[in-house]
Amino acid sequence: MNANFVSFDDMQDRVADVLRATEAMPGAIDRLYLVRDLFGRVRISVSDAVEDDESCQDALKHFARNLHRELGPHGYSEEEAILFVDEEMLEEISETARPLVSSGQTGHTMSRAYWVERLVTGQSWWSMAAQPEAGTRRFTLYSVKGGVGRSTTVAVLAWHLARNGQRVMVVDLDLESPGLSSAMLDARQHPRFGIADWFVEDLVEQGDRVVEAMTAAAPVWAQDFDGDVRVVPAYGSKPGEYLAKLGRVYMDTHESWAMRLNRLVSRLEDAHKPSVVLLESRSGLHDIAAATVTGLHAQVLLFALDSDSHWADYTILFRHWQEQEVAAAIRERLSIVSALTPELDTESYLRRFRERAWNLFRDHLYDDVPPFNDDGDPFSFDLPDDDAPHDPLAIHWTRGLAAGASLRNLEQTTVRQAYESFLARFDTLVAFDSNGEAR
Questions:
Q1: Domain coordinates in residue numbering, the chain
Q2: CATH 2.40.160.90 is right for the domain spanning 137-429
Q3: Among 70, 200, 304, 344, which residue has the least CB neighbours within 10 Å?
Q4: Sheet architecture: strand order including 82-85
Q5: Rounded to whole angstroms, how far apart are CA atoms 250 and 246?
């Protein structure tokens, strides 16, 4: 391999090296944004307020030449590398910016330099949304792989919460595989519009005209409960050109897709006043899934099987949060779920699952606490700690659910067999006041 080859993974360290070797930037450049675009090439973005400053121009051109020399095809020529942008654009860039950190020097942050990823949806796994208004609890059900029972669990949670008097809103955000909507609703119950309709109509400022026709009444099993269930499907009663809509759903406008999604969920909450919102996420490590995990400030149930492939994928995600220094912003919102826990040798399986989950959290998200150090209030748990994020909420495999039990007509005995311990643990995650409002 060519000695001058620079891979995608090497880029941040190389940029930090160039910046460190470059003479100090003039004080007028208070922030320097290194933007990696969709092609994986880096440009320099600075305020247009310094565009006519000769000393700033010279310093930036010198930096751009060195950067291009170091990055090769991952860089731009001096003429293309520098972008002077107005304050509005700088504000947009800064929303997903983070300090440029050189991994070669532990904890060394480059002064006034910020790294920005331009992704397809504008959402990243390290961008954490602000907390929504009090009164509503959001729960995202997420997994790195499909086939782990998330849709069934959404229905069971809605059933359980509604039985206990809660107002529940179910949102089907697995738009590429929208099975939850049809599984919970009879075809005649579907509302006129769905999630995909809102996103395409929002592009032409008609989103508010479809919001009121996006929710369906409760499935049959919830109609006699003290609470209620509303379902927001991926598509409406007439899917129409669903694939054409899907091709436009993830477009950014002046807002990122994650911001638009947050706005939609907030609008639905305003319209229907649920106490709990259950969001079924797309699975996988794509940044589309990141919007539901980090972009909505929800409690996140991480579904996993005790398999090497599941733990390997979660390690990639957790290590990313650790390296981007956002562990503290996400870890208190995570709970691991042992999905499809086998009927045979259950205790041994859960013991092994808990150990592997603990290793994952301990190595990447928990605080490293030196022995005999009682200072502060570290976020760290021992292996046997009950109710720690690594302590699994167990869903047990049963023949009733495996045989394809209808989510429109949940059978109480089957639910109890599979979900009794899971629901008991889940109830500790949700707190309500005497009026049934989420705290």
A1: 8-117, 137-429
A2: no
A3: 344
A4: 82-85, 42-47, 32-36, 108-117, 98-102
A5: 8
